[in-house]
Design a protein that fits this description.
The protein has 252 residues and is α/β, with parallel strands linked by helices. Helix content is 42%, strand content 16%. It contains 12 helices and 8 strands. It has an 8-stranded parallel β-barrel, surrounded by 5 helices. The radius of gyration is 17 Å and the shape is globular. The two termini are 17 Å apart.
Length: 252
């Protein structure tokens, strides 16, 4: 079994001071946790400062986005090497909010995946269907297409460093959550697709995590599913007690 991964995506929230206070609380609440990999993704402005505060804790750092070039005339962008320089071990790529508001495509997601891997940063690749696509019965077709696009050209040797995050768009920030059975169906389908693309052995260590209104009161039932290897948490990751409870999920 792979070690579960619980990641908190803070999105465009928290000042440096607010982030520091949150991390200090979390550090105490999850002290000694070693059976779960805990990742936090603060805003760019806080990453460097928080890198010092998470020392000797179970937490590691992620960024919320990245550009695919190492350097150059790309005003406002941040390269993978810059993220590595400030302590990031992971980066979230292709979140639905990036796709919706900033026109991310499967092609740009793929370029960011390669750039991140080259720099030694592990991508957390987000895929998910809209409500309209689910209602039309296109969920599996949509997420399979996104996964193929994100991994286009990625060799089996790099696969173990990639985390797949299934986040149904209709469940992000809405309070609606896919049922454990709905999530498991998609996760199982994605794993089967990975088996088809890469074979059994390279896929063994790949984690497929769930995101979309994950909360303390639904994490246990989600994590009880055989193909759910963790969670990408939004709003609940901004509350130390809630996020700590999610990190300390209980199998049911």
């Amino acid at each position: 079994m792979v070690k579960p991964l619980i990641a908190g995506n803070w999105k465009m929230n928290t000042t440096i001071q607010e982030g520091a206070e949150l991390v200090v609380k979390l550090r105490e609440l999850i002290k000694g946790v070693d059976t779960v990999e805990v990742v936090i993704a603060p805003p760019f402005t806080s990453i460097h400062h928080l890198n010092f505060l998470i020392a000797d804790s179970p937490m590691t750092l992620a960024a919320q986005d990245v550009f695919w070039e190492d350097r150059g005339a790309y005003t406002g962008e941040v390269s993978p090497w810059m993220l590595k320089d400030v302590g990031c071990r992971y980066v979230i790529i292709g979140h639905s909010e990036r796709r919706q508001f900033f026109h991310e495509t499967d092609e740009t997601v793929n370029k960011k995946v390669f750039a991140s891997l080259k720099a030694g940063i592990k991508p957390i690749v987000c895929i998910g269907e809209t409500l309209e696509e689910r209602e039309r019965g296109e969920t599996l077709e949509r997420v399979s297409s996104q996964l193929r696009g994100a991994l286009n050209g990625v060799g089996e040797g790099l696969l173990r460093d990639i985390v797949i995050a299934y986040e149904p768009v209709w469940a992000i920030g809405t309070g609606r959550t896919a049922t454990p059975e709905q999530a498991e169906e998609v996760h199982n389908s994605l794993r089967q697709l990975l088996y088809e693309l890469y074979g059994m052995e390279p896929v063994r260590d790949v984690r497929i995590i769930y995101g979309g209104s994950v909360k303390p009161d639904n994490i246990d039932s989600l994590m009880a599913q055989p193909n759910i290897d963790g969670a990408l948490v939004g709003g609940a990751s901004l509350k130390a007690e809630d996020f700590a409870r999610i990190v300390k999920f209980r199998h049911v």
